[in-house]
Amino acid sequence: MAIWLILCGAIIFIAYLLGSFPTGYIAVKQLKGIDIRQVGSGSTGATNVLRTLGKGPGAFVLVLDALKGVLAIALVYWLFNFNPIQNYIPPTGDAQVWQPWLITIAGLAAILGHSKSIFLGFTGGKSVAISLGILLAMSWQVGLATAGVFAIVVAISRIVSLSSIAGAIAVSIFMVILHQPLPYILFGIAGGLYVILRHRPNIERLLAGTEPKIGQNVATPEQTT
Question: What pTM did the predictor assign?
């Protein structure tokens, strides 16, 4: 049991480190020589990279941030499919019982890492892109449905933060509709709430009617990512 807990703890910690990898910060630093946290929204996420460097780098960071989430969940799948590990799974359960819970915890650790990166003094992004990657690896149906909600809202409103919040709310609904296991439903609730909380300044601007749309410049360091 002790070995199993150590292995699970290691996976969770690695998931956090993956989430912490500062993709946007490195991209802007290498391409423009500046600290993205001092530009635009002050966030290291793909939207702020888009505003700072343009569509290409923004899309590149978006994909890499999503891949961080995919890799975090892939680690858990690897653990449960690595034959020598099977001997250490506690007799009180099997892979079908433990796997969804570890996937959920690893996913939350990766989200936390992205927004509170150990490499950037516990600063980071809003955890939207990495959450999408996690969802696609956890349940591709939920991931695609959530991405669809985001795409529809952003096409209508042209506001990234509103689209992110809509997606965060939709996750839990899709988890239930698509009959996902309880740990995944809890992930949808916890992860969705966390993403919404990360957008508190954006919500204030949305209510005030001052939230910028795609293509508009960001004047303050509190804007969305």
Answer: 0.89
